[in-house]
Amino acid sequence: MTAKVTLWWPAHSNTSELKLTSVRREDNGTKYTCSMKGDSGTSSAVYTLRVAYGPFDKDLTVGPSEIVTKGSHQVNLTCHAINTYPTPRYLWPGFACENTVPGHACTLKPDPSRNDTDHHVCTFPEDTCTFKPSPDSDQGRIVNCTASMSFGPNDAHWQHKPQQAHAKMHLNLFYPPPDRPVIQPQPSDHHLRPGDTLTCTVTGGDPPVFSVNFYCLNPHLLDKEDEIRGTSVMSTITVGFTYTTLKNVKCFCEANWTRKPQYYQYIATAVYNAQVQT
């Protein structure tokens, strides 16, 4: 004889079937109890409703908006989706993230959305991409990020395409000058004479250096106000001493890059002797 069993959902259904209508994202996590009554007594089980939603373009943020670099260290790009469940996976189409952050596995594979086999997608389970920017090639570069999530099991009966959100950022790099200050004329090509002009120039950087500090010792000579020419900042010293004082004149030049001073700490030096009078 088959035992009689009764199933129902307390407060929701008097039968074994529970139908939910007008399900909203706010219903995610709602718990429902299924009760069973038979000859051996009553038991119950609790089920949690999981509602998949998102991601959407408006809920995807990328950053940072500015990157300060000197091309020798890594930075993190972030792509993060909110108002979504479950957590999506993140893709960086056409951009090779470096697999250097623990827990972030970067997989390079052909991008199915493109025909060329050399194009790749970098997929991360989390929302951070680590790479080493190059001021020469990455300034203004467009980086795309996609947050992707599939609804339902991987089953032929499910016709849902992966829900995706897209965002892009323009790499806005700030970097110091690539080379150390240059003092002209060089001591190997020139002996000092009263009235000579010495120049120290720092070229490049975005933004350029804020100021150039150029000075000489023995005797003490100070520079004039800086002059800006394009991406170069120049400082000059006019020699106003007699020949007898112009022996082993030591000159020093350094510059202040205010974005991150520790990224530009070069000091250029030059030692001059006086032109011998005949």
Could you explain the architecture of this structure?
It is a single chain. Helix content is 1%, strand content 40%. The protein has 278 residues and is mainly beta. The chain folds into three domains: 6-48, no CATH class; 57-174, Immunoglobulins (Immunoglobulin-like), CATH 2.60.40; 182-272, Immunoglobulins (Immunoglobulin-like, Sandwich). The strands form six sheets. Strands 8-9-7-11-12 form a five-stranded antiparallel beta sheet, with no helix packed on it. It has a four-stranded antiparallel beta sheet with strand order 14-15-19-18, with no helix packed on it. The protein has a four-stranded antiparallel beta sheet with strand order 17-16-20-21, with no helix packed on it. The longest helix is centred in the middle third of the chain and has 4 residues, at 135-138. The chain is rod-shaped. The N and C termini lie far apart (131 Å). The model is unreliable at 100-120 (pLDDT under 50).
